[in-house]
From TrEMBL:
It comes from Amycolatopsis ultiminotia. It comes from the Bacteria. Residues 68-382 form the YcaO domain. Pfam families: YcaO. PANTHER family: RIBOSOMAL PROTEIN S12 METHYLTHIOTRANSFERASE ACCESSORY FACTOR YCAO (PTHR37809). Coiled coil: none annotated. This is YcaO-like family protein. PROSITE patterns: YCAO (PS51664).
Amino acid sequence: MTPPPGAKVFFTGTHRVRRPAETWAAIEPLLPRYGITRIADVTGLDVLGVPVMMAVRPLARSLTVSQGKGQTPLLARISAAMESLELWHAENVPRSFVHRATPARDLGLPYRIAGIVSHAGSLVTEQTPLDWVDTLDTGSGEPVPVPWPVVHLPEPVRPWTPPGFLWSSNGLAAGNSRAEAGLHAIYEIIERDALSRIPRGARWHYIDPGSLDDDVCAPLIDRVRAAGATVRITTVDSRFGVPCFAARVWSQDFPIACGGWGTHLDPHVALSRALTEAVQSRLTGIAGSRDDLPAVYQRVRLSTEDLVPEEAATLSWAEIEPPGPGAFDDVDAELAWLSGRVREVTGTGPLLADLSTAEEFAVVKVTIPQTLFDAEYLHTGQ
């Protein structure tokens, strides 16, 4: 199958170089190859009515259930399948090492190893012997090695690595093309960097949910509120100058404040991602099917959470001045701009490892040195 061109053809809640029906037709026949046995529609387990699906991969080495969400059932189905496909590829990265047992100081890297070490008290230094795989700097086009643990999700019995690297799916993404997947990965890293830098106890800037009048987010908000749920939207400052939003959904029948976040140069896409992710995280708790889900029903029984807005100024959507150049019509142009912006902020372009195994879709793992990912804060802040 010929890779799609860079021009975008779909813009409803997400930007894609293929229409959803074309994407599904391309990936659906391949799902058994990657161990995906079922795509289940769990939308009806909640009263909100926003489409949420889950993909089941029984022999997974990490998560056996992956969630997906979207403006339509088809988009949610594709999202769930892509999430599962991403994990399969990260679990099965070929051991194509370009350097074995080599310290970073010997490689002339454009970044310091401390910039991609995630744990406090790390034992990884410039002198630590490591195995390396090649990535592509999406800004310069130059090959740049990164340590093996950065791109690979470990087997159930994790291989020993020096304490310091965080095994995570941050920056792991799939798409119709490598550029589309790369953009999704970069946005995720930017989003989590922004959220990880919010000081504890910081005051939020609220947006009136009723002030949206677009064709993408306004119908989502109306649907959730009509079901009796409360929606809270806040802006999140990003040092990369990209629109970022947080959304929370709460209702009396499932009294847990479920959160979602979204980042994109098109602010409507960023907010749509935040809203649908909040609904998805709520349904994940209701379904209880995700392998690493913390116990939530004790909190439900106790009804210990509420979603009463703190005293703070609330802005209308029209008063928001989103940063950045706005939406692009071409993923290659968007990737070039975003790569340049990342280099301005961090000193290094996004480092993309192409994990793809089929022509029909692309899977990548992107690393951006000098960015933060506070996994404990983000995963427990639902």
